[in-house]
Amino acid sequence: REAEAQVGFLRLCIGNLIGMAVVTPIILRLHAPGFSRLRAVDGFRVLEIAALCGALLVLAWYIFGIKETDEFKLFDLLFLPMVALAVRYGLDGALAGLALTQVAMMGWLRWQDFPAAGVVELQTLFFILSATCIFVGIVVDERERAGRDLGLELAQ
Questions:
Q1: Longest Cα–Cα distance in the chain
Q2: Could you read off the pLDDT of 1-20 as tens digits, one per residue?
Q3: Residue 89 and residue 79: Cα distance in Å, rounded?
Q4: pTM, two decimal places
Q5: Residue 90 exposed, middle or buried by CB count within 10 Å (0-12, 13-18, 19+)
């Protein structure tokens, strides 16, 4: 009984940590001045974003939706489109992809009868994915800001 309580507490803590890691930056980004590189996109970028989000959904369905797959071994596949979103669109792309992936994973966990220990492992993997993508998004945004500032300084 005590072991179940410990697993439940750990699951709650990791779930809250993931929620804070994904939702808080989204809320802060929505209220930031000069928000969002995703607002000013042309037709090609809309197709690119749709393709990357579609790849995320297909991979999430393949990893989580098919009973025969081992979601722990295939979870790493989610890094490919997520890092691509972060590299192409910075923090905004990373947060949009994380939100989409988190909703897909939460829906899958509700739909499947998944053991609590497995949920903790998946949540831990998702936290690693979140931290990686947010870090890459921040690095890309800072590099672009530094390049813009350098270009302005050289122009003077």
A1: 69
A2: 787 788 778 778 877 888 88
A3: 15
A4: 0.80
A5: buried
